[in-house]
Design goal:
The protein is α/β, with parallel strands linked by helices. It has a single domain, classed as Collagenase (Catalytic Domain) (3-Layer(aba) Sandwich), CATH 3.40.390.10. The strands form 2 sheets. The chain has a 7-stranded mixed sheet with strand order 1-2-6-7-5-3-4, with helices on one face. Strands 8-9 form a two-stranded parallel ribbon. The protein is globular. The chain starts with a helix and ends with a helix. It binds zinc ion. Zinc ion binds next to strand 2 and helix 4.
């Protein structure tokens, strides 16, 4: 109860200054500045003014730390490659020590989605991603879509957002998790790096194959991984985890993280026992 009151008070305080911003935001995009108040490197950080919280930063690097390239304008529609594999793995992913409350909701910034992914697809991509984890827990945690946001930046504001935005070079996606002292998640934000070329291969159309578009990073593949962090699973970088959804590196022409391996499922279940 006390936590809830603190959290609501915090949300009201932080959102109050936003009342003055819309006129400005209508005329121009927000400036493309780094989050000066939030760290970009993996780690655990104190939250100034909030001794009851800790901030955890988890970034998802491109394999080989491939630098971001400007999204090329395709001269013809990319051809879906359906010769990929989605091997299972029994290697049990690590856990972070935090957990979601029984009911959690998120906001989407569909206006931030690259045209090559399609703004209209974000609700499906997010839903496919969180359902992987929620179904592994047989509905123990309910995660729901709560509407749209225009925010492209992670910040402690009482809103859990999924957006494309600015992230450090070499990072495909970065997830910010604020936790209470007992490990319960207070807030979660995921930023997909707009500097990379993105695509989305809809798993509902695969018909028994595993497919992805060449030369780009699949939004489902990376977001399902990032949502794993919301639920409390950790990155693993050893080779034995390379088929896990929680494998730390992401690659082009990869959609095997769309679905969980047995090792990912065992890990997330261990958190909510
Ligand atoms: Zn990660």
């Amino acid at each position: 109860m006390v936590k809830k009151i603190i959290f609501i008070a915090l949300a009201v305080l932080v959102s109050f200054p936003l009342l003055y911003l819309p006129a400005k935001a209508k005329n121009a995009d927000p400036p493309d500045l780094p989050d000066s108040d939030l760290p970009e490197n993996n780690g655990v950080y104190p939250v100034p003014g909030h001794p009851e919280l800790k901030l955890h930063v988890l970034s998802h690097p491109a394999r080989g730390s491939r630098p971001a390239k400007p999204t090329p304008t395709p001269t013809s529609a990319p051809v879906l490659n359906c010769s990929l594999e989605d091997p299972d793995s029994s290697s049990v992913s690590g856990v972070t020590g935090w957990y979601l409350p029984p009911s959690f909701s998120y906001l989407l910034n569909s206006s931030s989605v690259p045209a090559s992914v399609g703004a209209e697809n974000l609700t499906w991509i997010a839903q496919n991603g969180y359902l992987q984890w929620a179904e592994a827990l047989s509905g123990q945690v309910s995660v729901s879509f709560a509407g749209q946001t225009l925010s492209t930046r992670a910040r402690l504001d009482g809103q859990n957002i999924i957006t494309w935005g600015r992230a450090a070079s070499g990072t495909l996606g970065v997830t910010y998790i604020w936790t209470y002292g007992d490990g319960e998640v207070a807030e979660a934000d995921t930023i997909m790096n707009k500097g990379y070329a993105w695509s989305w291969s809809d798993p509902d159309t695969w018909h028994g194959s595993v497919c992805a578009y060449p030369g780009s990073y699949d939004a489902q593949n990376i977001l399902t991984h990032e949502l794993g962090h919301w639920f409390g699973t950790d990155d693993d970088y050893d080779q034995e985890f390379e088929n896990n959804t929680m494998y730390g590196f992401g690659d082009v022409l990869e959609t095997k993280k769309d679905t969980l391996t047995n090792g990912d499922i065992t890990a997330v279940r261990s958190i909510y026992q």
